[in-house]
Amino acid sequence: MSTSTLSRHRSFATFALITATALTLTSCGSDGSGGSDPGTRTGAAKNADLPTTDVVSSLAKDPAAAALLPAEVRGSGELTLATSVGGNPPGSAYLDDGKTLVGQDVDFADAVAKVLGIELKREVASFEAILPALGSGKYDLGTGNFGVTEERRRTIDFVTYINDGQGFAAREDSDLPEINDLKQLCGLKVATSAGTTFEATLQDNKKVCDGQKAYSVQTYSDQSAIWSALQQGRADVVMSTINGLRYAVSHQKGLKFLSEFHRLDVGFAFKKDTPLAPAFQAAVNKLIEDGTYDKILAKWGTKGSAIKTSEISPPESKG
Fold first, then answer.
1. Is 253 helix (H, G, I), strand (E, B) or coil?
2. Are 262 and 163 in contact (CB under 8 A)?
């Protein structure tokens, strides 16, 4: 594990301890019913509570999908995968051992690798570093709940596997209504993750507050710091993934989900014009066909994010 990864894990573990004893809260995605265990909690949700049901290891290689891989990949049998681990389920998070990585992104990547008959050499990297590194060839692909946007499509290819998007959450005692217009944020302190579509959306639209006090954007690299800022009153509202917010609200006392804002397709990320996309698309569609896809979504409580078929770099969703 890298020093930065260990630091992030220690930060998450420390935050969980603080919130369990002082704030009675915790950590983050779903179909509207909450995470895998939506039961009421009076303290922090432990990472040990994350589902660990194996829905991947029994999968067999699909010769038709594997045949779409470039010859050199079929020969080497491996690809390098960069994974962003923000400690925010259901995407990806470490169990309490600090070593075992679990999450929806993890299951989908491992399942696709099984179908293609290859090994993914997983490396943990910061969210904001992954997409630029794909173009340089440092990694073959990346995962991190990367939403498909028009700006990203200029330099990145995607193979979609879920539909997630942007939403808002606040403290339970907040009088904020459902947010469907960024003008409603004017004068507020908005917490979000650094290097994301959320940060870009917020920064690009500050002009909507013309004539009013602009909202301020607080960015964090660690998900636990976002929730700490909200709970301690340093932020008024959080903008993050719909799935991540729903998971957080179902596992943290004193929070509420406000609203969805903008739906986005989410996919495996590759450098532009990658020859890997057709094989990965075929593998995802194979998982949809054989039922494994539904099992993964059920495991992570994200059935509301299901797609009917995988696509290669579709236009940005308008929903």
1. coil
2. no
- Give dist(CA 138, CA 135) in Å, integer: 8
CA distance 264 to 269: 14
Please classify residue 308 by burial: count the beta carbons closer than 10 Å to its beta carbon, then call 0-12 exposed, 13-18 middle and 19+ buried. exposed
Average pLDDT over residues 302-311: 96
Structure tokens at 231: 């709970």
Contact 139, 79 (CB under 8 A): no
In this prediction the pTM is 0.79
pLDDT of 154 reads 96
Segment 274-288 shows an average pLDDT of 98
Q: Which tokens is 276 given?
A: 């890997």
Which of 72-76, 87-91, 153-157 is predicted with the least confidence, judged by mean pLDDT? 87-91
Largest Cα span, the chain? 61
* Residues whose CB is less than 8 angstroms from the CB of residue 213 and which lie 6 or more positions away in sequence, other chains included: 186, 187
- Taking the C-alpha atoms of residue 142 and residue 131, their distance in angstroms, rounded to an integer, is 7
Task: Please report which confidence band the pLDDT of residue 297 belongs to, taking 50, 70 and 90 as the band edges.
Answer: very high
**Sign of the alpha-carbon dihedral angle for 66, 68, 74, 78:** negative
What is the C-alpha separation between 6 and 231, in angstroms, rounded? 24
Cβ atoms of residues 259 and 184 within 8 Å: no
